[in-house]
């Protein structure tokens, strides 16, 4: 994993190679939190370019089904105020333009940041930090590029990759501010 910080923001490149002699299950995700200067995420606006949400059961484990974003309470396909929404959802069927998906967090004063991810990260977990203690509760929004949904070992159809011996994975994501 390599990180580079430059004039265009942060770029993270991940390269994984199966150097073993047998196939290996593989999934990769990152867990960054972001803020645009608002006191809480309630005051921020979010835009997510995705067609589906991963359906979770009552224990936040994927069922293997998808929900169309417009049929959910978590449609951020156009800039939408987060308000009091409690978000802990995984988006998929991301919309890629020229191989890149973009998710934007902004505020009314013109502050913004964008998380971008390439097609090798076809999932985006979004978490409004409601269960991490009062000091940090809703102070930032986790925007997490992922190769698969959590618990993909139990639901391999949700993005789990099997790297055969010698096979390599390469993916990129980053942040623009």
List keywords for this structure.
177 residues, mainly beta, 7-stranded antiparallel beta sheet, 6-stranded antiparallel beta sheet
Question: Short summary of the structure?
Answer:
By secondary structure, this protein is mostly beta strands. Helices cover 0% and strands 47% of the residues.
* Bulk shape: globular
Question: Quick check: average pLDDT?
Answer: 95
Quantity of strands, as a count:
15
Distance between the termini: 21 Å
Into which percentage range does the β-strand content fall? Answer: over 45%
Low-confidence stretches: none
What does the model show?
This protein is mostly beta strands. Helices cover 0% and strands 47% of the residues. The protein is built from no helices and 15 strands. The strands form three sheets. It has a seven-stranded antiparallel sheet, with no helix packed on it. A hairpin with a 2-residue loop joins strand 1 (2-6) and strand 2.
List the helices and strands and how they pair.
Layout: E1 2-6, E2 9-17, E3 24-26, E4 33-34, E5 45-48, E6 50-56, E7 62-68, E8 80-81, E9 88-94, E10 100-106, E11 112-118, E12 123-127, E13 141-146, E14 161-163, E15 168-176
Antiparallel strand pairs: 1-2, 2-15, 3-14, 4-13, 5-8, 5-10, 6-7, 6-9, 9-12, 10-11, 11-15, 12-13
């Amino acid at each position: 994993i390599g990180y580079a910080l430059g004039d265009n923001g942060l770029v993270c490149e991940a390269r994984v190679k199966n150097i073993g002699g047998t196939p290996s299950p593989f999934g990769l995700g990152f867990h960054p939190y972001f803020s645009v200067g608002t006191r809480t995420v309630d005051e921020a606006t979010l835009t997510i370019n995705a067609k589906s949400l991963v359906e979770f059961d009552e224990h936040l484990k994927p069922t293997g089904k998808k929900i169309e974003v417009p049929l959910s309470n978590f449609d951020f396909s156009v800039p939408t105020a987060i308000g009091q929404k409690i978000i802990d959802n995984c988006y998929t069927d991301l919309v890629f333009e020229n191989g890149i998906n973009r998710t934007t967090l902004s505020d009314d004063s013109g502050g913004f940041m964008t998380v971008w991810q390439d097609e090798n990260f076809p999932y985006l977990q979004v978490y409004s930090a409601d269960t991490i203690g009062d000091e940090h509760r809703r102070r930032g929004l986790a925007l997490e590029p992922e190769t698969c949904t959590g618990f993909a070992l139990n639901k391999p159809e949700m993005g789990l990759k099997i790297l055969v011996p010698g096979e390599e994975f390469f993916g990129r994501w980053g942040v623009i501010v």
